[in-house]
Inverse folding.
């Protein structure tokens, strides 16, 4: 699975290092943004975080006040991003012997494929199928698509539907949970960092997601939220075994199989989750703040 020729081997690692440096260059300000987000959570003076055009134009939705950090979301989002940044730093600057564990072309291919596949769990599943009921599928297929969304770590289906339907009630207005009228950073990820009493209420679920909760599959996810972590964490052994089996079938080398399995977990799971997060969040931020629109919401 890995080249035996020395020149090819060194060339491959140089390519891996170049990719790591390039990807790392895209994330230089993320740690500072997260640090300042927590530092200024009371004043919410986002002018100190970003360019002036991203400064807070309007107050946040009333149910967010007073600010109370959503510890589970904040810790999860920051931790997963730190893992991704650590991966890129180690890939770019770490020991050469580590790089086969951190990157492989098969893992990168599954990463790209996974962005599309698991992204559809959000786009087609959570959004079009569950929120807007744009089409119907057999229940087993609906649940499978929903599981793809769960594996993207964007909350339970009912919670996601609740927030998005509330968004459509107040589209791009201040009560919108991720209103772009506040600023870019808030609509992109800031709204996830703080508890919104409206979206976290039972009344919100009853009003906006009652149809989903009639299905025992979705109700079980709400009555026992830890069920979703079973699906999320199951990605680790699934992707490791996928890489391990592919490599072992090719080379019959256990060491090579472990390397590919590890790189598969890092790229097909961790890095893919980060990518799908930002693609989804960009719909709330970039898509609602820039480009053509029939009505001004700025």
């Amino acid at each position: 699975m890995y080249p035996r020729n020395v020149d090819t081997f060194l060339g491959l690692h140089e390519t891996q290092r170049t990719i790591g440096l390039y990807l790392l260059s895209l994330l230089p300000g993320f740690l500072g943004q997260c640090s300042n987000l927590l530092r200024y959570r009371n004043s919410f003076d986002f002018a100190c975080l970003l360019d002036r055009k991203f400064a807070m134009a309007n107050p946040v939705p009333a149910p967010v006040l007073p600010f109370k950090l959503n510890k589970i979301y904040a810790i999860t989002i920051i931790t997963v991003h730190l893992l991704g940044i650590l991966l890129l730093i180690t890939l770019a600057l770490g020991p050469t012997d580590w790089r086969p564990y951190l990157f492989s072309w098969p893992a990168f291919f599954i990463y790209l494929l996974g962005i599309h596949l698991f992204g559809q769990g959000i786009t087609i599943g959570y959004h079009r199928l569950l929120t807007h009921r744009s089409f119907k599928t057999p229940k087993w297929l609906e649940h499978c698509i929903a599981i793809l969304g769960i594996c993207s770590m964007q909350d339970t289906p009912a919670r996601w539907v609740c927030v998005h339907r509330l968004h459509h009630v107040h589209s791009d207005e201040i009560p919108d949970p991720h209103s772009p009228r506040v600023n870019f950073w808030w609509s992109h990820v800031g709204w996830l960092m703080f508890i919104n009493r409206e979206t976290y209420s039972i009344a919100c679920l009853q009003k906006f997601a009652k149809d989903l909760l009639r299905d025992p599959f979705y109700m079980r996810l709400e009555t026992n939220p830890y069920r979703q972590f079973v699906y999320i964490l199951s990605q680790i052994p699934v992707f490791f075994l996928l890489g391990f089996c592919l490599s072992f079938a090719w080379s019959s080398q256990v060491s090579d199989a472990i390397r590919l399995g590890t790189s598969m977990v890092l790229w097909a799971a961790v890095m893919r989750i980060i990518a799908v997060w930002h693609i989804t969040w960009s719909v709330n931020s970039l898509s609602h703040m820039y480009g053509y629109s029939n009505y001004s919401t700025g």
Remarks:
- Confidence is low (pLDDT under 50) at residues 1-10, 40-54.
- The chain has one domain: 6-288.
- Residues 6-288 form one domain.
- The radius of gyration is 21 Å.
